[in-house]
UniProtKB/TrEMBL annotation:
GO terms for biological process: L-tryptophan catabolic process to kynurenine. SUPFAM superfamilies: Putative cyclase (SSF102198). Pfam families: Cyclase (PF04199). One of its GO terms (molecular function) is arylformamidase activity. InterPro entries: KFase/CYL, KFase_sf. This is Putative cyclase.
Amino acid sequence: MSSVRNLLHAVESMEMIDLTHVLEEDMPVYPTHSRYFHTKWDSFETGSPALVCQLLINEHCGTHVDATGHFLKEGEPAHRYMAETPLEHCMGRALTLDFSSYEASDLVSRQEVLSWEREHFSIEEGDIVLFRFGWDRYWTPRSAGRTYTASWPGLSEEAAAYLASKKIKAVGCDTLAVDSSHSDGYPAHYQLLGNGITIFENLKGLERIAGESFFIGFPLKIKGGSGSPVRAVAWIPKNEARRLSVHHAEHQ
């Protein structure tokens, strides 16, 4: 069997999990960022043979990835714009850590990450580490409420520095930002991006991939871009998908 067929067989034996929020008007956005607009440009009703729409979107709308250039100036060693970010940094083995019991003012400590490793998997060089806070449960239209964007938990500077020391590829979370709304000065962003580690934010459904998975979140190839919307997905064995689904249903 060829290498391609072996890969196809492996993929077909697993379940693909979509970790991406729908892009739609009135969705939550970071308070200082521009909103998302989706406008009909031409349609069948106007005599066009096809429907065409125009998007107006901030690079950091919805489920997205931060390039290191989001916080690092040109000339800094780890600075990269989105088009320069290696795709390898957006795919790989992912480990999902569950901190869904956290309140908005809580920060994940270095010791808690170490404790998770002792109980589950060792974080290795080249991994992608995802943090589930369960904050996607608050993802609602802005007109219906602002809980998602009002406050959220995140990583402490010490936890981010520890992850950077492990030489991982990326960190992700199901909150508006990897830094808590209660953090001062974006310490986790600087620790991670400053060490060449990309950041995925506004993920969803991380309870479906608790533990180990294979993750992909490819960005648009934006020249000079500080970030990009992504379609984030992960693969897990089908028997593990069933187990996690049952476990989550029992704890609702």
